[in-house]
């Protein structure tokens, strides 16, 4: 895993909304793993006796992680649960973007057709809205 990409994605994921802004999650980063854990010391038992809000808040953080990784070209793949883990603890894998060949030359800005239909021809002016 690319450490800098992962740290930046986790920082974005920590901006996820949480119930009462408790941010009840904890990230554990290993050399080849990343774990999202519920931080039960931030669980508000008086307003959330069953822990539903805690789980929903962690889910929002996981969704933000997935989005942050996707913005960087990575994917977060659900690998399912193993027999030794409960079904409420799915396993996820971070998949780096595929290697893409570099273009041999930079693309010209006028390479495509314009509104007039002729490559490189000036476009007609856009009319201003009459408000």
UniProtKB/TrEMBL annotation:
Biased composition (Low complexity): 81-90, 109-120
Source superkingdom: Bacteria
Record protein name field: Nitroreductase family protein
Biased composition (Pro residues): 121-131
InterPro entries given in the database record: Nitroreductase-like
Naturally occurring in which organism (per UniProt): Actinokineospora soli
Region listing for Disordered, in residue ranges: 78-131
């Amino acid at each position: 895993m690319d450490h800098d990409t992962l740290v930046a994605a986790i920082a974005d994921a920590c901006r996820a909304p949480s119930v009462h802004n408790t941010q009840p999650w904890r990230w554990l980063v290993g050399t080849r793993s990343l774990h999202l854990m519920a931080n039960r010391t931030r669980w508000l038992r008086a307003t959330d006796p069953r822990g539903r809000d805690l789980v929903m808040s962690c889910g929002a953080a996981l969704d933000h992680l997935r989005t942050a990784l996707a913005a960087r070209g990575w994917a977060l793949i659900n690998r399912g649960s193993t027999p030794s883990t409960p079904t409420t603890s799915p396993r996820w894998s971070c998949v780096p973007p595929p290697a893409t060949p570099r273009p041999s030359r930079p693309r010209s800005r006028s390479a495509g057709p314009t509104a007039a239909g002729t490559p490189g021809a000036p476009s007609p002016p856009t009319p201003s809205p009459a408000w």
